[in-house]
Amino acid sequence: MANDIDIACQQVLQQDASVYSLQRLVIPPEYADRLTPEHLLERYLVHIRGFTGTLVRPTRAHGRLEFRLAGCRIALLSFTESPLKTEGTACCLALRICGGLLVQTGECDRGELTFTCRPSDQGLEVTLLLSDYCPLLLGDPNPRRWRKHLYRWTQAYIHKVVTIKFLGRLYRELTGKRGCSRVVKIQVAQGEDI
């Protein structure tokens, strides 16, 4: 359908058992000037809180951004914000993972969630990328098959749904156009599909 919103997606478990999860959307050029990585991050945080019914609460404290469960001071995920970075025509804002209950012990300083805006021929490419992340559910660098399935059907699935819903909502808010989000599989990184 002409009103469908195409969202490119890839989720893989890489050879070192780290997660690579990319979701990408192209915003038409007439709306491109409204978006920056900082704006994406702020809209994403509002979306997380709303999508989870305030069960997960993004909180800024002590120079960190944390995703906490409601009524709890313990972080599910904890991030440090890197300064805005320009790479060619792309503008990126990275949240470096620095801890949390959902991260493997010993891998707390590894991984990042990146918000990128890049001009393209069709408009503005908006990308959310979770990379080099080592989830606690996988256990270690050599996860057993049952752990992979557990991760795939819980945390990976939730992350994918939340991000796709976020990008679809962002598109509708910017353009005022309604439509269904359609996931289009892409191949960027090598690994085992999640």
Describe the structure.
This protein has two helices and eleven strands. The chain has helices at 37-51, 145-175, and strands at 5-13, 19-27, 56-61, 64-69, 75-81, 85-87, 90-99, 112-120, 123-133, 181-185, 192-193. Strands 1, 2, 3, 4, 5, 6, 7, 8, 9, 10 and 11 form an eleven-stranded mixed β-sheet that branches. β6 and β7 (90-99) form a beta hairpin.
How many angstroms does the end-to-end distance come to? Answer: 27 Å
Largest sheet: 11 strands, mixed
User: For the CA atoms, what is the radius of gyration?
Assistant: 16 Å
> How many strand segments?
11
Number of helical segments with 4 or more residues: 2
Helix and strand content put the structural class at alpha+beta
The fraction of residues in strands falls at 35-45%
- The SSE order reads EEHEEEEEEEHEE
Shape verdict: globular
Unreliably modeled segments: none
